[in-house]
Design brief:
Number of strands: 19
Structural class: alpha/beta
Radius of gyration: 25 Å
CATH architecture of the largest domain: Alpha-Beta Complex
Shape: elongated
Number of domains: 2
Oligomer: single chain
Amino acid sequence: MAFSAVIVAAGAGLRAGPGEPKAWRPLAGKPILRWSVEGLLAAGAADIVVVAAEDRLAGLEEALAGLPRWRGTAGGATRAQSVRAGLAALPASQEQPILIHDAARPFVAAEHVERLLAALATADGAIPALPVPDTLKRGDRHVDATVPRDGLWRAQTPQAFRSAPLLAAYAAWPTGEEPTDDAQVLERAGGEVALVPGDPLLMKLTWPEDFAMAEHLAGGRRITRTGFGVDAHRFGPGDAVWLCGVRIPHTHGLVGHSDADCGLHALTDAILGAIGEGDIGQHFPPSDPQWKGAASDRFLAHAAALAAAQGGRVLSVDVTLICERPKIGPHRDAMRTRLAEILALPLRRVSVKATTTEGMGFTGRGEGLMAQAVATVETPA
């Protein structure tokens, strides 16, 4: 089931100690906010609104580089104001379920979302919740009473809602009051909220010691996958070839349905292979006239977006071009720069090499050229 999501990341996170607001702190090498966006994209989010403080909006592009289907909007002074801002940024015709999630819960996964959406078949809203296991005491410096814990639950996020009841409930919420979560807003309006099994991994990062635990957990929830791609094209009429996104003057062109960029084609296949998404021909069939003469950077960007939609990210790439001519050396830096731009990677993670076959085979005879590529992609386990 398709859904939209609002991710709240506008808070200062003062209890987390000195430093950046917690949604922007690194976890296993990337911002905590990015973990939440990747998790919801991997679960099938069709549209995500990220609510950030006004002075953080400019940093969203860097924090979420390469991820599709999100937009940012400025939050308010309170969480409820930020949620309202996120809901207002969704399309006016919004009808699909809405998930509201705290950015500081980085380990949201598809199984959490599936349970929530299933519960909406019989309820206006659904929240993941864990039973309270500890004995509860009420008091200040001394215990005044022991509180029965039967029927008490720890509410987590994401919380899922049918669109119309949620929007109506927020419209009716009294001005000046601050709800503790979004389910409370729906409850007050008379909506039915279902409980679904929560998960300790949906922990909210609040205190400094939570971040050390999250680092430990993050290391066990990601894997590195490697893909390999090969492509070859023959020479034909023309005065230039495209290789790794760079136009190189030459005595011939390359024959192909698109721009015949062997380097980009091989690298596209390498990324698709790493994430188990088939090959370039499945996504961009040569029989489809819309790809005639198309720039191959579109193919590579598409493969990277598919990886991001799975909650993954390209870590590094290595391309080897095999040809006698044209000479690759003078253009290698430009090629690396272009690949880094397309994939939003640091230049140090992009390699382009060249070799010949010592006059052997079709490349040695100058009939065409070939490319091989390796892509390393990090994805959820």
